[in-house]
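Notes from the 1:1 (GR / supervisor)

We went over the backlog. Supervisor wanted to see one worked example end to end before approving the batch request, so GR pasted a single chain during the call. The sequence is below; no edits were made to it. Supervisor asked that the structure be written out right there so they could see what the output format looks like.
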Amino acid sequence: MQTRSSWEHEEGEDGHGWDHAGWSYDGPTGPQYWGTLTPDYAQCSSGGRQSPIDIIEFRTSRRFLGDLKFTYPTNASGTLWNNGHTIEFHSETNLWSHISGGPLYEDQYHIVSMHLHAPSEHQLNGKYYPLELHIVHQARGTMDLVVVAVFFEEGPYSEFLAEYEYPIHDIETPDAHSPVGGIDVMSVIPRNASYYYYRGSLTIPDCDERVTWLVLSHTMTALPEQIQEFTKIYPHINRPVQPLNSRVVYFHAEGDPSLLPPNFHIPAPVECPPNVTITVPERDDPPEHHVLGISLVFFCLIALMVSLRAVRPK
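Structure output shown during the call:
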């Protein structure tokens, strides 16, 4: 039997990961009871930044966060593992596989595993998708995680899921392993990787809240029978959506402005009088700076209207 990754072992000891038994997705050990099963899981019910969430497009805040930089393998080999809750992939090449850019700046978060949920855990405008892929990353020497979430819906054939199809028949029982190769992780990243960004938690016990979520806005497709290959083993493994509370979900549109969600409206640019200066807050400025920035924009518009009224012919 093949060994599991060091991440999984270390995270399991600290309460993260899939090693801990005693929880499930239904019944008396289901999500609504996770916080009461053991003190280690208390955050599942008491935390204020829990995941997943329902992403409502018109309530998101559009900000330029920077494009993400994906350095993912196109021919990854590793192990598929039935951990008793889902099918998980661990790569043998994760040392060179990482993500950076966007709200991560130049920090590199390396891939430690990938797994699927059915149906999706996050919702988009109240809609569930048949599958949601989680690509889990971790910065070296920290416990902070970054998870890239990719939705799958029914449509054309998926080369990515095709690599799962045959090995998955050999791992239908918990703790079964199977070697796998040829997985193109880059194939699930669209050319224009627009994304939603928010701070949340693991979606499994212990529901630790040191997780940065990057939910891609573009969906991937798979044939219905490809999706069924996975769901016949684990047909319902998703945690219900959690309250957003005071958090803000940001949307970054990469490249083409037409990629903005349809409910966004970008007003036409207005030139300010030369004696008015507006300072744009940094992306990590506190909320009070945002209020100041909005006030300055409002002042600019008032000044422009007054100046136009002054030069209007009598």
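Supervisor's comment: The CA atoms of residues 48 and 245 lie 7 Å apart.
Batch request approved.
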